[in-house]
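Recall that a protein's primary structure is simply its ordered list of amino acids. Everything else, from secondary elements to tertiary packing, is in principle encoded there. The following example makes that idea concrete.
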Amino acid sequence: MPNIIDLFAGAGGLSLGAARAGFKVVGAVENDKYAFAAHKKNFPTSKHSNEDVASLNGKQLFEFAGLKKGALDGLIGGPPCQGFSNIGHRKADDDRNELFFHFFRLVKETRAKFFLAENVPGILDERYDTLRDKALKLIKKDYIILPPLRIIASDYGAPTIRKRIFFIGYLSKYFSDLYEESFASPKNISPVYVQDALKGLPIEIDPDWQSEENGWRQIEKRESDCYAERITKHIPDGVGDVRSIDRYESKNEVSGCLGTRHTPEVLKRYEALGPGKRDKISKAVKLDPTGFCPTLRAGTDITRGKYQAVRPIHHLKPRVITPREGARLQGFPDWFHFDRTKWHSFRQIGNSVSPLVSESLLKTIIDHLREAD
C-alpha cells in the first residue's frame, strides 16, 4: 500500500481522503495540540509528531514515520492559510506564510514521489509571487509541477462552495502522465444541497447540551443515496476512533450535537431571516435548504485573539449549526470525531480540506502511481 505523510495535518481532512483513496497514512505532523489530539484519535495507527514543521528536516520525517530513505510515496499538507486569506490582513510578511516554503523544502529533502499542497485562493495574489516562486524553485528541476488547481468542493460532491487551490507535482519516473485535466470533477456526482446533507440529524437542539456527553445524540437512518454512502460507510482499516465507531454502528449515535444559547432577541431575528440572507448584526447567513453552504470559517487560535468564526444559521430552526452539522456540510463522515468543545471543533472543521475533495484528487494520483508500477 503506498504511503503518505501529512504535514499541517489538522484533524485529518486530507488524511481521511488519502486513506479512502488507498494510501496508508504513516505519519502526521500538527503543531496545534487540540487538532493533534483529534488527528491522533481518528488515525490511531499513524505515527504523530507535535513539532513545528519549520524545525523538521527530511531525515527526521523518515525516522519518526519509520521509513527508509527514498520510501516516501507522497507528502501532502495544507500550510496555514490565514496570511493569504481574503478575510485576513493579507500581509506578505506574515510569519505563517513561510510555512508554505518549508512544505516544499521538505518535498525536496524527502524526494517524495509526489506532493499535494492545499491553500486558499488568495495565495495566487501577485503580492505572493515571490513567495511561491521561492518555494517552487526548490523542486522545479526534479518535479513535473502542474498549474495550480482551482477547486470548488461542491463540484466534488460536498454540500459547500468552499474554494481552494491545490499544488500538485510528481517525479515522472514513478507515474504515468498526469495533467490538469486529470483532476476534473467526477461526471457521475450529483449536487448535494444543504437539506440533503443534514438529513437524519436531530433538528431540535437543546441550548443546554454543552458537555461532550450531551452532544452524543441518536440520528435517523437515511435511505441509501450517494451522499449517505459517502458519509456513513467506507471506514479504512486502522482509521477511526473505536469508541465513536461502536456507538455509531451499534446505537446510531453521533457526537458533536452541541447547543448554543441565543437571547430571545437573536432568536426572533434568526426566525425572521429568509434563506440565504445575512443577519445584519451577527453577520451569520441563514442556510438555503436547496443551495450550498457558504465556506465555513475556522476563527483564530488563542495566539491570535481567540475569535470564534461566525457560524451559519440552520435552515429550519433559529439557531446556529452544531459541530456535527458543520462536519456534514464539510463532507466528513458521521463516525469522525472532533474536539469536545464547539470552539475547537469548528476550528478543526473550518481548517480542514473536505475529505470528499481530497479523496477524489488522491484517487487520481494513486491510480496513475499504480499504472506506472
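The chain has twelve helices and ten strands. The longest strand covers residues 163-170.
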